[in-house]
Amino acid sequence: MTEFWTSILDFAQTTTTRVGKQLMQDFGQVQASQKADGSLVTQSDKWADREIRDAIASTFPGYGILSEEDDKVFGGTQWCWVIDPLDGTTNFTRGIPIWSISLGLLYQGTPVFGYVCVPPLGQTFHGYWGENSKLEVPTGAFRNHHPIHTSLDSPSGNHFFNLCSRSTSVIEKDFPCKIRMLGVASYNFLTVAAGATLGGIEATPKIWDIAGAWVIVQAAGGSWRSLKSEPFPLISGEDYTTRSFPTLVVSRTELIPVFAPFVEKLKI
Questions:
Q1: 89-119 burial by CB neighbour count: b if 16+ within 10 A, else e?
Q2: What kind of fold does domain 160-263 have according to CATH?
Q3: Distance, CA of 42 to CA of 201 (rounded, Å)
Q4: Of residues 123, 120, 118, the one with CA closest to residue 145
Q5: Which of 42, 104, 128, 141 is deepest in the core (most CB within 10 A)?
Q6: What was the pLDDT predicted at 37?
């Protein structure tokens, strides 16, 4: 691994570890307010956002920053960090131990590195994906620095598929897997990358929900299918505040025809 990519990984790990320690102190102890889009936000979200943005600005001057809690307009910079300082705020406020800090590093508008820290579970995920980027990018996806890969299993009643709260209409009596709902978009997809589930769907994820996981899923062998518009590359000058990117993720391309008929019934 080159010195550049080592510095990227070290930065992501050091920053999310530091921020995660403070968030663990706040976990289940803070009050949330409702944003215009109906989602929740806490002072912890805002603090974590400032900490990560300040760390990026001091370590990577000139890099763009796109954040759920701050600037949501892509400036068109060659390199840009996309951050979700606290994915799963509802879980966080209710004391449910699944929430994450998500970072994605984009080159020319497309993610090439993703890092997701899940403090309450003691898990970190990272991966590299340089397809079509013309960069020399390392390969692989990792959980706690150990390689991970998606499952090669066929669907059955003993396998899992993740939904979000807005995608429950896919459930029918002949659905091929057991259903789980985790409440965290990034972790939903990362369970596919790690081989724990065969697929997952998010009906309304924003760009900061998926930038980090997008890399890791594909680096682990998974298949990412956008159900409306492709999220990447980002468009210079575009405001991503309200744009959602409905997404189906499966452990391998062969499973898309299995789950697609259910997903197509969603109103997105």
A1: bebbbeebebbbbbbbbbbbbbbbbbbbbbb
A2: D-Maltodextrin-Binding Protein; domain 2 (3.40.190)
A3: 26
A4: 123
A5: 104
A6: 57
End-to-end CA distance of the chain: 41
Q: Angle at Cα 266 formed by Cα 263 and Cα 268, nearest 5°?
A: 120
Where along the chain do the CATH 3.40.190.80 domains lie?
A: 160-263
Quickly name the fold that domain 3-147 has: Fructose-1,6-Bisphosphatase; Chain A, domain 1 (3.30.540)
207, 82 contact by CB (below 8 A): yes
> What is the gyration radius of the CA atoms in the chain, in angstroms?
17
* Nearest one of 143, 36, 29, 147 to 94, comparing CA atoms: 29
pTM reported for the whole predicted model: 0.94
Bridge partners (DSSP) listed for residue 83: 67, 103
Closest CA to 4 of 130, 119, 148: 130
Helix or strand holding residue 138 (H, E): none
Q: What angle do CA 37, 42, 47 make, to 5 degrees?
A: 120
Q: Tens digits of per-residue pLDDT, 152-210?
A: 999 999 999 999 999 988 887 789 999 999 999 999 999 999 999 999 999 999 999 99
Q: Which residue intervals of the chain bear CATH 3.30.540.10?
A: 3-147
- Distance of alpha carbon 211 from the chain centroid: 6
By CB atoms closer than 10 A (0-12, 13-18, 19+), residue 163 is buried
User: Angle, to 10 degrees, between the axis of helix 3-26 and the axis of helix 43-59?
Assistant: 160
Distance CA 268, CA 262 (A): 13
**How far is the C-alpha of 106 from the C-alpha of 141, rounded, in Å?**
17
Work out whether the CA dihedral 193, 91, 111, 6 comes out positive or negative. Answer: negative
Of 95, 93, 82, 264, which is closest to residue 186 (Cα–Cα)?
82
